[in-house]
Amino acid sequence: QRMTTPCSQARVLANCARSLWGLTSPYSIKSLVSLLEKDLLLSPSTHSLYQVAKLDPVMVSVPKWVGGGGQDFVISPLVFQLWHDQMGPGDRFCVVPEGSHFFHTVSPDWVATELRQFWMQHEDSVIEPIHDCEKSALNLYSSSI
Fold it and tell me: What is the three-class DSSP state of 120?
């Protein structure tokens, strides 16, 4: 598949880098191309430049935070809509309109604020179960000694 394009691999990867990180990337295109070359060769992931895996939206019993970039060329608007439609009470769906696939590297302050608000929204409901879980783990550990 990679051999059928009339463009060089470097040119294709440079275009991918611009599309993935956007024009405001703090990284040079050359360093991003190098990173993408390594991903093509070494990535054990089912979702890479070579192959795209699909993660279907599902309902879960815990609150979820879903974020994305509005200018993402990897994840289509249809997929964002499917995730949005699966959101339940307490879930948070956030999109950076001008964000690329790696919106979190270009807008880390925005992501931090959104995640902080999400966790603060659930702070009271999450702390108690965590403490109960820790107690259970400690009891299990101390009974095995």
Answer: helix
